[in-house]
Sequence to fold (214 residues):
Amino acid sequence: MIMKKKTLLLFLLALWVNSTAFAHDIYYEGLCYNIISETDDIHKDVEVTYFGEFGDYYYSGEVNIPEKFIQDGILYTVKSIGFRAFGGCSSLTSITIPSGVTSIGEGAFGGCSSLASITIPSSVTSIGELAFRGCSSLASITIPSSVTAIGEEAFAYCYSLESVTFEEGNSSPLFIDPYAFRYCTDLKRVEFPSNLTRYGFDPETTFGMFEGCG
Fold:
């Protein structure tokens, strides 16, 4: 009887592990995705997500995210980099984000300490909090004019970040959290756009945005 109970517990544990270890909808050519919306049975929008359980730092080296892909007769379009999708992947050295991605989620690249450069496509409208926090090898970043919101500590603790350039062209207000760039110790140059608004704070003040910066 005890042996049967033990066998049942092990079986239930195995089911639980299998159901949680791969918390994604789709796996395609080395990347995991979750479905976020669907037009019909053969057209679906997806976001890139983390591999396996949260904290299983799987992605490394050079990663190219496709704009679209077909699997089992369904066309998937990549629209977002999801919550902590690449978070903690300290061996990630290069990432290609396709045109069509509209948001970079919370902590999407947080702690990617080997990521030296990244190009944010002009389709992106929001950069979530902690999105690039701790990307200590990132030397420069250009924010496209399409971006209208940058979250708290989005680029904080990027110790090698020397310059930030905001492209002009968007007539919509740009909201930057006051602590978006804190402790970027090597930051020497920031070119703010004319449409800058920081949650109601005077654009001429820093209010902690550059706390701990060089």
Q: What stands out?
A: Confidence is low (pLDDT under 50) at residues 1-21. The chain is about 10% helix and 30% strand. Residues 68 and 77 are 4 Å apart (CA to CA).
